[in-house]
Amino acid sequence: MYKLIIRPLFFLFDPEKIHHFTFSMIRFLNRIPLMSNMFRSLYCVDDTKLERQLFGLKFKNPVGLAAGFDKDAKLFNELSNLGFGFIEIGTLTPKAQPGNPKKRLFRLQSDSAIINRMGFNNGGVAEAVERLKKNTDVLIGGNIGKNKVTPNEEAVNDYKLCFNALFDYVDYFVVNVSSPNTPNLRELQDKEPLTKLLQTLKDLNSKKENPKPILLKIAPDLTDSQLLDIIDIVKDTKIDGVIATNTTISRTGLKSENKDEVGGLSGKPLTGRSTEVIRFLSEKSHKAFPIIGVGGIHSVADALEKLDAGADLIQLYTGFIYEGPKLVKAINKALLERA
């Protein structure tokens, strides 16, 4: 039904407007008595064989929703009814910011892809915290970044502010220095500033009564040399894992009309490179740390490939938009067959 009726209808409209409309519809439907139960019965696969224990947390299943979909933590409870084992909110910044000028979100239907240059649009971390206080039992990751106006030399303060504000309300943290849509942000992936940032958060975390896992989200555009630096940084700072990967600035092989739009590309064109990065990190580090695989997962085969390459968990974003919630269920059922 989703691919035959709902998706073609939604794809007639501006992608950012339809995103907000979809949020309103999901919220409305879940408020109807018994509808939440119906969604869970349709899309959730509940089986202890799907559970994963990772960095001290128990995930109901290994299929999560990537950051960027529920930026402001507005719909995590409802989205969990669609079968996800965990939801990552954000990217959140200390202060609210509008993001980049519209139009800033583009479908590339011929490539099963999306280009976005959203620019960390969000209502600020304090607003998200108020919503997270209403969480029931959803495992939440908090993806944090810096405000656009904050210079890189002061970025660590923004990450610390978000970390402290979210600490009591998320289960793990993701440090986002890999979005291509905030000016100069990716410079923080260089070895020296990244080590300083992660070590500062690690030290801050160690002073907490119950420290939370800290992960680093990296770009797919890093060279092998830079990926080796990432492995060293994870080892030196002793953070808990890596999310591979964010969107790409590459435009290789695209066919769609919007292929030259500025921004980060996600979807099927990213499938191969994301898997390459996962495999490289896993093999070169000798599986020294957990990896969450994300990028171009549009089918069960894509998901299994990521896991076989060394990912411990996976996340969906663009594949969820193109394929619908049945993809989550299909992946979990396939993993049960493997168990």
From TrEMBL:
Manner of cofactor binding, per the entry note: Binds 1 FMN per subunit.
Gene Ontology cellular component terms for the protein in this record: cytoplasm; plasma membrane
Complex and partners: Monomer.
Residues that hold FMN according to the record: A67, G68, F69, D70, K71, T91, N143, N176, K217, T245, G267, G296, Y317, T318
Short name of any one Pfam family annotated for the protein: DHO_dh
Active site residues according to the UniProt entry: S179 (nucleophile)
GO molecular function terms listed in the Swiss-Prot or TrEMBL record: dihydroorotate dehydrogenase (quinone) activity
Binding site for substrate: K71, N116, R117, M118, G119, F120, N176, N181, N246, T247
Compartment list: Cell membrane; Membrane
Protein name as it appears in the record: Dihydroorotate dehydrogenase (quinone)
Function: Catalyzes the conversion of dihydroorotate to orotate with quinone as electron acceptor.
One biological process term in Gene Ontology: 'de novo' pyrimidine nucleobase biosynthetic process
Cofactor(s) for this UniProt protein: FMN
The reaction(s) this protein catalyses: (S)-dihydroorotate + a quinone = orotate + a quinol
Major subcellular location class: membrane
